[in-house]
Give the backbone structure.
Amino acid sequence: MSVISQTKQRYDNLTIKQKEVYLGYALILPSVLLVAITLVYPLLYNFYLSFTEVPLTPAESPEWIGLENYMTLISDPDFLVALRNTFIFTLFSDIGATVIGLGVALLFTKEFFGRRLARGVVLLPYIAPLIASAFVWQWIWDPTYGVGQFFFADLLGLYDSGTDLRNSLTMVIVFESWRYFPFAFLLILARLQSIPDELYEAAKVDGASRWARFRDITLPELKYVIATVFLIRWIWNFNVFADVWLFTRDVPVLGVFVYQTGFNQFEQGIAAATSMIMLVFLMLFVAIYVTWVIEW
Amino acid sequence: MIGLLMAAVRESIQTTKSVFSGAFRQSQIESTLFDRLVLYGCVGLTLFFVLFPFYWMVVTSIIPSTELYRLPPAVIPTEFTFDHFREIMDAQVPFYIYFFNSFVVAVISSAMAVGISIFGAYSFARLEYPGRAFMVRGVLLSYMIAGILMVVPIFQIVVWLGLVDTLTSVVLTHFIFTIPLGLYLLGNYFRSIPKEIEEAGLIDGYSRVEVLLRITIPMSVPAIVAVFLYSFLLSWNEYLYASIFLNTQELYTLPIGIEFLQFEFDDVWGEIMAASMLTTIPVVIMFLYLEKYMMAGLSFGSMD
């Protein structure tokens, strides 16, 4: 009997339950292997590389230098600036996107002409390719011919003509809030629509003011979804790279710092160490957030 | 911790599904004229905030450069031209090459991601074996791991494989980065199909694999389309890995190609906006036709 038919024989003798187990492994194996090879292995390899000096030519192997990369980072003012920028950026663009999303979602609970169409339109910033959005924002805030600059600086005099707002952390935060508020909008609107009307009507009969109805009915119902949106956006804002990099080269966040150290200066060991620090901060935040900040 | 995160993501996707299907809830609370004015004012402001950048993109791409670089800006254009489009098509590396590259990368990587995650997701959703819960959590953990956290090791691996400056390396990274999402969305969908339907198939003598191919997959077309679209968008947008892997201009995908236009032209905004518009149009068309399929992916939280 050949090996194949022996195996087949053995497989046929299995109970259905056992077959399911084998099939389960067989079907998941490719995915898990790929994810392991490309997520778990790189993470471990990154951990190792962060303690080495990575040579420019791939033929040489990385040289173990212990904690030196981390030491370099802690005393590098550029890194500290990037760290600070990342926290400010993450916090405020998260708040920005969530608050605008909440406001627009509340607006869409009212009836108005063209609401169905408008609901799709509002999602545009979120689905449009990043490269297009980032560049059009750059062009709008161009310090010489930008239309935003013309309107806000030349016409309204809100800031000095010729100032390049694009280099400011604030503008990056505004851009990111613009791009991601539809995500918050989408999730919050879904939740809003499931709050029964009767609650509001009863409150109105009882003489509750508009603000009281919002505070005592809407907000408690939205607590969970807002907390979720905030968490998800935090994770992605903290890991931001392309959104900031394509909008401006002058606002270093950690993602940009990794890219520049790793692929402009080819200090890949230091870049790997920076990634590790980012990962630790991120895990810490998520752990603290889900344990203490919100009770699910 | 991961369980909680998972619950959060699942909740968000489920609540969102309902928004775009079905009509709006009708508000019964009557309003005054003043309320209506404020409402329409706010709606107008919101739409302006959302749409103006896109309006400006279109205008910039179709007015001549002389109109572009003047003050006050031509907010309502009077002269039109297709010069910017012509120029990016006549450039040394014509723009449609980037378009073609991006399309090929996105289609191949999404098709592979869908193909492999169908089987994995079925395994997660329907089959029972030791270690499954652990693997489900492991896959979801990868939700927190963005590309930037692994850019150095993955670059090293690609160098080691000798795949630098090939589209293969880009296809592979996009493919693998979308597997977790595919496993997750499809797994949830498979779980929502009544077990009885599959059991009836088993009783009729189908094997598990036949059940999957003949019953589950045909019933899950919406979810499969959703996963495909989402991976397509991710790949269409992806900048980081494409930019570190590719050096040859002929191989550039759209994001890097558009970025490169900056160095190719002077007074470049007309050309860049023309290119940006061409990049945006397919996505918007997809959205218009397949809106309901896209919701599940959009509520997953990231478009990078």
Remarks:
- Chain A touches chain B through 111 residues (CB under 8 Å).
